[in-house]
Amino acid sequence: MFDTLSDRLNKVFTGLRGKGRLSPADIDATAREIRIALLEADVALPVVRQFIAAVKERATGEEVSKALNPAQQVIKIVNEELIQILGGETRRLQFAKTGPTVIMLAGLQGAGKTTLAGKLARFLKDQGHAPVLVAADLQRPNAVNQLQVVGERAGVAVYAPQPGNGVGDPVAVAKDSIEFALRAQHDMVIVDTAGRLGIDADMMRQAADIRDAVQPQEILFVVDAMVGQDAVNTAEAFQSGVGFTGVVLTKLDGDARGGAALSVRSVTGQPIMFASNGEKLEDFDVFHPDRMASRILGMGDMLTLIEQAQRTFDADEAEKMAGKLAAGNQFTLEDFLDQLQAIRRMGPIGNLLGMLPGAGQMKEALAQVDDKDLDRTAAIIRSMTAAEREDPKIINGSRRLRIANGSGVKVSDVNSLVDRFFEARKMMMRMTGGMGLPGGNRRNA
Ligand code: GDP
């Protein structure tokens, strides 16, 4: 699911890599490509429009961060906007203050309601609740039986009309189930309702009657993510016909485009609460907008890295540093120490590199990277006087010995640090480009 969207978005980001800064034309072109990606994935048009407007505004606006390069910048904005259309915060179930909590499931036939009932019951049971499943789908032959099978698999009780009474009144069954739950000490009631193949007035009325009879804390609209644009229409019909408090996306394991399902939250204003991604009981999870967004972006921990970089590098500092780097000869050991510390603040260097896309193949190289090297280098610089850090040329033999003793290393380590520093500074002066430091690329683009 969402593979096409992921691929397209990643192409957009790849195209931005290596760009020094984004011109208004670049931003327009990027926005256009993102728009096509979303439309191809079946995201509803009004949602796409809103999304693109936000991305454009933010990519042009003042919040553009000096700590990030343009590709990272766009990834960050797209990620945050995706989280936004997916609902922002993770929404948890609301529980009744007294008596059993009632969750009613609504949706078209085949959406995955009965399967979800089992998954939800198992999920709640694992959390220490005592749920009961209620068969209020008396329309479909075999529906009661199917729920019983599901209940057995999930290891939870099922409340159903007595055999021979199968064509009874689903509203009455639902109502009686609350009494039953109270008597049998079930604290959660999950009511499975009938679905039709298409939306019809009878079905809506029946669902509304069941709703009125059981007064649910939550009405979950269950929608098959594979149905495409129809998901939005169905959601709107259910919203006006029955109303719902949350959405469950099912069949996210399918290979369809899925964008319509992503629009449901924006179109109806109700949060996506759970996601189903398979036929087995355990193929189910609470829906986290942020995790889904990063899955869609296929960026793994790149997003974490971006956040950390932003937290760690103070924008003004970065700008100053970039200036010094460009000039080369103004770059001192003191600056070098600042940078080492900034890098160390981001966590173990191995983790940091591991977060870069493609780092998987670099495992062996990463194992060689040693935080202790960085720490040792920092210790050597700390043993220097301010004058020495400012102008390393004055570091003669006796100073080197003092520094080595002060930092607990060999004189040869001090020598090698000083040599490497001069070497690096020479290179900087030659390249007028920064060393890939934040701000450095942009300046010279
Ligand atoms: P209902 O009519 O809304 O109660 O839908 P069902 O629960 O009977 O599900 C309809 C079909 O979809 C069944 O064959 C389920 O096994 C299947 N199904 C439900 N949820 C998922 C899911 O998340 N992934 C996949 N692949 N199939 C699902």
UniProtKB/TrEMBL annotation:
Top-rank taxon: Bacteria
InterPro entries registered for this protein in UniProt: AAA+_ATPase, P-loop_NTPase, Signal_recog_part_SRP54_M_sf, Signal_recog_particl_SRP54_hlx, Signal_recog_particle_SRP54_M, SRP, SRP54, SRP54_GTPase_dom
EC number from the UniProt entry: 3.6.5.4
Gene3D superfamilies to which the protein is assigned, alphabetical: P-loop containing nucleotide triphosphate hydrolases, Signal recognition particle SRP54, nucleotide-binding domain, Signal recognition particle, SRP54 subunit, M-domain
SUPFAM superfamilies: P-loop containing nucleoside triphosphate hydrolases (SSF52540), Signal peptide-binding domain (SSF47446)
Binding site for GTP: 107-114, 192-196, 250-253
Keywords assigned: Cytoplasm, GTP-binding, Hydrolase, Nucleotide-binding, Ribonucleoprotein, RNA-binding, Signal recognition particle
Domain notes: Composed of three domains: the N-terminal N domain, which is responsible for interactions with the ribosome, the central G domain, which binds GTP, and the C-terminal M domain, which binds the RNA and the signal sequence of the RNC.
Protein family membership: Belongs to the GTP-binding SRP family. SRP54 subfamily.
Functional description taken from the UniProt entry: Involved in targeting and insertion of nascent membrane proteins into the cytoplasmic membrane. Binds to the hydrophobic signal sequence of the ribosome-nascent chain (RNC) as it emerges from the ribosomes. The SRP-RNC complex is then targeted to the cytoplasmic membrane where it interacts with the SRP receptor FtsY.
Protein name per UniProt: Signal recognition particle protein
Organism: Jatrophihabitans telluris
